[in-house]
UniProtKB/TrEMBL annotation, chains A, B:
It comes from the Eukaryota. This is Homeobox domain-containing protein. One of its GO terms (biological process) is plant organ development. Residues 24-90 form the Homeobox domain.
Amino acid sequence: MDPQQQPANEDASGGSCKGGSFLCRQSSTRWTPTTDQIRILKELYYNNGVRSPSAEQIQKISARLRQYGKIEGKNVFYWFQNHKARERQKKRFTTSSDVPMQRSSVANASWKPEDPLIHSNKSPSINHTGYSLASSSSAGVLPVGQMGNYGYGSGTMEKSFRDCSISSSGGNTNEVSISHGWVGIDPYYSSCSFFEKRKSLHGALDEEQ
Amino acid sequence: MDPQQQPANEDASGGSCKGGSFLCRQSSTRWTPTTDQIRILKELYYNNGVRSPSAEQIQKISARLRQYGKIEGKNVFYWFQNHKARERQKKRFTTSSDVPMQRSSVANASWKPEDPLIHSNKSPSINHTGYSLASSSSAGVLPVGQMGNYGYGSGTMEKSFRDCSISSSGGNTNEVSISHGWVGIDPYYSSCSFFEKRKSLHGALDEEQ
DNA sequence: ACGATATGAATGAATG
DNA sequence: CATTCATTCATATCGT
C-alpha cells in the first residue's frame, strides 16, 4: 500500500492554467498532502482531538504545515471535514442498527484501512511527543489536557486549547529528519493568479477579518 | 438469531464462480464482484434507478449481495459511485459534438437506454427473487427503489458547471436554486453563481501568501 | 509476458 | 454535517 503517489512536487501550479484559451481553471490544483502533512494532521485529529478547527486554528495549522509543502487554509479545513465525515460514514454503513452488544468481532474490517501507517524511517523509539500544536512554544500555555474525547461525542467542544502559536524557530520539533528532502519553502507562484484564492471558495469574501 | 450469518463458504469467491467461466480464486485485496452481484447491482441501478444509495440502503444491498459472495458496505458504495461517475464521464465524450442539448427537465425516470445488457452467465434462467431487500422485521422497508432521478445534467457543458437552472417548470415549485460559486471567465458565465458568504470560514481559509 | 482497458478504492473539493 | 462530484491511483482481467 502506500498509495502515496510519487513525491508531489509542490510546484503544484505546474500545469498552470490549461493554456489554450480563456477559461482558466487551475486544473490539477488539487492539494496533494505530503506524508508529513498527513502525519501531522492525523496527530492533531487523533491525539489532540481536533475535529473541526476554528478559523484561527486552521490558520495556525496550515501555517505550520506549510513547512512541509504548499498548503492553504481551505485544505486543512476540508481535510478535517472529510476525515470526520468519512469516519462517520464508515460507521454508518457498517453499523447497522446493531443493538449494543459486547462482542467485538464483526464490527469492523470494512471501511478505511485506518491509519495507513506512515512509516517513516524513524527509530523504533521515537516518541517525539510534545508535538501538540499547543505545546511547543510559550511556556505558559500548554495543552489543556486533551479533552480525552477521542471517541467522538466531543465534536463540539474541541475548542479547548487556545493559542497554538507555531513557533517555528524553536528548533524543537524537528524530531525526524524527513527523508526525501524538498521540503523547503517553495515560492510557489500561482500562475493563474487571477482567481487563485481570493475568490475560490464561494466567491465571496470578504472584508471581514 | 445470528447476525453473523455470513456464508462462510463464499469466502473469497470460491463457490461463486458458478458462472461457468473463469474467475475463481482470486484472493486479492480488492473486492471482485461476482457475476450475480454485478447482475443485481445493475438491476438496482437501471431498473430501480438507484444511483446513490444512502447508508441504510447500502446496508441492505450489501446484506443481500452477501449471499453471493463476500462483500462489504463500502464496496456497494463505491460501486454506485463509480458506476455513476463513469457513465457520466463516458457520456460526456459521446455527447461532445452534438447540438447543444436543450436540457429539458430531466425529471423523469429515464435512465438512458444504453448498456443494460448484463451479460450474465450462461444460466438460462437465473431468476433472482423479487425484492426482498427488506430483511428486518420492521416495516418500512420496501423496495429500494428511490428513483429520485435527478438528472444532474447531462449537461454536456464544458467542464463541470452544474446546471444552474432556476427551476422554471411550469409552476409547481417556487424554488430558486442557485448556489454555485466560482467566478469563471467563461463565456457562459452569467447568471447563477455568487456569494454564499457563510461567515465562518472563508475569511480564514483564505490566507495571504 | 506485456500493454490496454475496466473498474475498485481513496480522497480532495464542493454543495445543500 | 451529510452527500455528492471529480480525479487519480491500484489492480484485475483480457487481448495479442
